[in-house]
């Protein structure tokens, strides 16, 4: 099963608030996560996608750094 965006946001301690089935960033008001579709939309940036794309967009990191962050989550969840 794929890691859910909502679980990642919680794990990373990112400031999001629940609005029904959505999570809305408290730092970027146009950044929304649809928890049912496991998909983010960042309207002001014209971006959308899955968890990998979210990490790259939110942190402004490369594919390599994004993969590193995902591996770190995997290691933490195995503890």
How is this fold's topology laid out?
Layout: H1 5-12, E1 16-19, E2 22-25, E3 31-34, E4 39-42, E5 47-49, H2 51-59, H3 63-77
Antiparallel strand pairs: 1-2, 2-3, 3-4, 4-5
Question: What structural keywords apply?
Answer:
single chain; 79 residues; alpha+beta; 5-stranded antiparallel beta sheet; 5 strands
Summarize the structure.
This protein has 79 residues and is an alpha+beta fold. The chain has helices at residues 5-12, 51-59, 63-77, and strands at 16-19, 22-25, 31-34, 39-42, 47-49.
Describe the 3D structure:
This protein has 79 residues and is α+β, with helices and mostly antiparallel strands. Helix content is 41%, strand content 24%. It has three helices and five strands; from the N terminus they run H-E-E-E-E-E-H-H. A five-stranded antiparallel β-sheet has the order 1-2-3-4-5, with helices on one face. The longest helix is centred in the C-terminal third of the chain and has 15 residues. The two termini are 18 Å apart.
Low-confidence parts, pLDDT < 50 over ≥5 residues? none
- The backbone outline, from C-alpha atoms, is globular
Percentage of residues assigned to helices? 40-55%
Largest sheet: 5 strands, antiparallel
Order of helices and strands: HEEEEEHH
Strand content range? 15-25%
Q: How large, in whole angstroms, is the Cα Rg?
A: 12 Å
How many helix segments?
A: 3
